[in-house]
Amino acid sequence: MTDTMTFVSTRGGMAPAPFTQVLIDGLAPDGGLTVPDHVPTVDAARLEGWRGLDYPALAAEVIGLYATDIPAADLARLTAAAYAPERFPAPVVPLNRVDDRRVVVGLSEGPTMAFKDLAMQFLGQAMPYALARSGRRLNILGATSGDTGSAAEHAFRGRPGISVFMLSPQGRMSDVQRAQMYSLDDANIHNLAVDGVFDDCQNIVKAINGDAAFKAAHAIGAVNSINFGRISAQIVYYFWAWLRVTDDIPAAGRADALISFAVPSGNFGNIYAGHLARRMGLAIHRLILATNENNVLDEFFRTGVYQPRTREQTLVTSSPSMDISKASNLERFIWDVLGPERFRAAWAELERAGRLDLSAEQPRFTAEYGFVSGESTHADRLAAIRAVHERSGLLIDPHTADAVTVADRLIADGLPGQVLVLATARPEKFGDTVKEALGDDAEGLTPRLRELLARPQHVIDVPNSVDAVRAYIEAHAPATTVAE
Fold it and tell me: Which one is catalytic: 116, 206, 215, 429?
């Protein structure tokens, strides 16, 4: 019997709400992030019972521990549709071994060739389901550093009762990322390119979500990783990958296998899902957080000091989806570390001073939660792409290369066991960097990508202004925000 799950806000100003409500609302009404009121546990017997499930069935089981207000049969239908063969080839999440210590987990086999598809295709089924149940419609407001936007737009294009307003930073995404978003001409898709960096886009989304009256009047929701529905779907592939890599281990030794996950990290949503999987009971030895040169998260996990950087201090790198200096989902982890009462005082200090010193808690990050971290540079990315290709013939993208770099350093320093590297994008999306690394060994553009890049693009340039985005939504959001 599954315990009933409700969700609360990190900032304490929200009545407990069920999964379908937080799925539609996104951000909590007090400006905080929604978190489960308890973390469900998965014992060894249940985990072994899941071993024979295919990916959609496993997703229904894992997500069902959080989405307790969706009947099990309905949830199974939603996950079957989300991970159907026309959206993902089989297997949905393939594992590719590099050598006896490293495995690449392929999270990027979906429609937009990025890991965001695994969560977004679920939301593309679950949100219309929840809206139909409640008689509501929704205007999704999101921010993207590259992959979230295209994954959201491809999941929701043409979907009934939903429009998408997606903010992206001007000139800060790859050609393929831009083309995947801006080439869509569906009437319910609106691309707004902001004169700023991703953090500016994210700040605008948070400001508009924090305006309760505007949010209610225009039925604003979110599908960024601040939406817990996405987090719940991302937990699934940690369980899937762990089960697959332990399939050949005798049953008596599986719980003691030392298995770590290396995760390219920008906004902290992906690795936060791994953090929840570990708290649920999955035997994850280490959660390896990898950043690029925008290393605010690495600095935090090494020192305990969190100091977000300004737009001017945020570097443009060759792993652009991680060019983030203010990680939204870190709020959820800090809430876990401090507890509700201490969190509120600490977050007020961060907002006042722009800096939060948790150095006294830092030893717990590894000892209690399993986190270790490191950063990667452009030269490191090129070397990692070459090394993986030489070892195994696999091609990886620059974000995945950041995770390989940090994992390799930790292995060299004595990290035991196997490391599962989460591959967060297909290499074709970042062909220039892959070609720089491999030269003539790099694969050229596929016919599919050539055709995509040739399509006309539709995008509106806007200033870095909350008011400008608010005005655009007022002018273009559907006149009726509640379905008749």
Answer: 116
